[in-house]
Amino acid sequence: MGGGCMEFVFSRKEQQTQILYGETLNAVLRTQEISNDQVIILTNQRYYDRFSEKLTRLFLPKEVSWYICTNQMYCNNFTEFQAFMSFLSRFSKQENYLIVGFGNEGVLALSSFIHYTSVLTSDLWLIPVSLRALAKSVKESAIIVKKPDIPVLQSPNVPQVVVYDQTIAEKQKDGKLVDLLVLIRCGLLTDQAFLRELFRTFLTEKQVNNRSFAAYTDRVIQAYQANGAALEEYGQVFTDAFYKTENGHLLSDAMKLFYGLLFHLIWNVQQQQLAVKLDKLCLWLDQLGFPLVLPDQLSLSDYFQQVLLLQKKEKKLLFLSEIGTIGGRTSALEEDLVQTMSAYQTIINQIRGT
């Protein structure tokens, strides 16, 4: 990575978090003094398999214990929480611990919640393995879910340190589109010029896979510092509706996130009459490898009914007054969503050439 370690002090109501990036995990950990008696690392199975020996060595001479979660995006679930609390019962309350969450966004949320609520005295470090996980590491709150769409427990998210090693993220080709979606979201909500830059830089799926996102780490951190709550919320109701829709299981969690953002945007563009060429935007997304066409077994009319039902339970929907500028909140009406469905189908027909 070569440019030396960079630091950003991320401010929250409860405390500040030191974000260290631009260097490898090895290089960063060599400069950190750890005063805690023991280290407890939570990680996903895939990262334990790849990094357990290396990370254990890096924390020497501290005693290191591991707790291993599933690889699911939503491993911050109630079952895993109960299992981890049982695991912690073997540790002495007399010692001081460093809890390290190393892995995907679910692991980071679980680590943060445990750190905040456990009776053990502990500090918290988070080591996200993707841009998406980096964004989640600076969320205001950590949530435990029952099923992916039902939050049941929540605590402030207050890591002392976040270490982001871009070399780990770059090795995961299967997550590049999900990371790119984080960048696109930042452009859509906070910086129109940045969205244009992405449009010019990434023209094909091959470019997405072969080019590094390292240069954009600053942009993501600063966007989340300024507008983190909105970045997390925009598209969420439309995403959650897929979990309520028959055959929604045909979409992965990452695909639900993508379609949730897409449908919120299409609704927003039409409802606010924004000067956005949706067909051009969607053609670009299609060229990058995003799955624009929903499975035939998933009924769009049923899906939009779920959006309406969910909206009644939530706040009004965020809208953009123009790309890059958050305008406020308004309700989605049934006739608006009918137009959204029609606009989406027109775009898909154009992409298919029918």
Account of the protein in words:
- A 7-stranded mixed sheet has the order 1-2-9-6-5-3-4.
- The chain is 50% helix and 19% strand.
- α4 runs parallel beside α5 (131-137), α11 (236-244) crosses α12 and α11 (236-244) crosses α14.
- It has 354 residues and is an alpha/beta fold.
- The protein has 15 helices and 11 strands.
Q: Over all CA atoms, what is the radius of gyration? A: 21 Å
Q: Which overall shape is indicated by the principal axes computed on the Cα atoms?
A: globular
Strand order of the largest sheet: 1-2-9-6-5-3-4
Strand content: 15-25%
User: Would you tell me the structural class of the helices and strands?
Assistant: alpha/beta
Number of strands: 11
Low-confidence stretches: none
- First and last CA, distance: 46 Å
Order of helices and strands: EEHEHEHEHEHEEEHHHHHHHHHEEH
The total of helices stands at 15
Helix content: 40-55%
Give the rounded overall mean pLDDT.
Answer: 93
The main sheet comes to: 7 strands, mixed
How are the SSEs ordered, and which strands pair?
Elements: E1 6-11, E2 16-21, H1 25-30, E3 38-44, H2 45-58, E4 63-69, H3 78-88, E5 96-103, H4 105-117, E6 121-128, H5 131-137, E7 141-145, E8 151-156, E9 161-164, H6 166-170, H7 176-190, H8 192-201, H9 205-210, H10 217-233, H11 236-244, H12 253-271, H13 278-288, H14 300-313, E10 317-322, E11 325-330, H15 334-352
Helix pairs in contact: 4-5, 7-8, 7-10, 11-12, 11-14, 12-15, 14-15
